[in-house]
Amino acid sequence: MSAFAFFGAALAEIAGCFAFWAWLRLDKSPWWIAPGILSLCLFAYLLTLPVSAQAGRSYAAYGGVYIVSAVLWLWLAEGTKPDRWDLLGAVVCLIGAAIIYFGPRSTAVG
């Protein structure tokens, strides 16, 4: 379930940020802002769904998923095929995210 929430959050964040990009950099209508804001609100909600005792750890793990999703956006939405460095960097980040999210934790308190 966490993976779906992370990828959903990434799509919502990228789409929301792209709406602002389109308005400011691509000379689209200011009306692009409204769905962008809604998308960013959805992003924030979805990021609360993964099971984690600490928000920061969940956000850090999400970062790797975000990077993979951004590379996919580059390819599928913007039509630029990722090169080997894009792919290598995304894989490294995803491995780091998995270590953060699934790594064994001490049960000691304090």
Automatic annotation (TrEMBL):
Any one of the GO CC terms: plasma membrane
Keywords: Cell membrane, Membrane, Transmembrane, Transmembrane helix
Major subcellular site: membrane
Membrane recorded as keyword: yes
One Pfam family from the record: UPF0060
Membrane disposition: Multi-pass membrane protein
Ranges annotated as spanning the membrane: 29-47, 59-75, 87-104
Subcellular location, record wording: Cell membrane
HAMAP family: UPF0060
Similarity comment: Belongs to the UPF0060 family.
Protein name: YnfA family protein
Organism: Altericroceibacterium spongiae
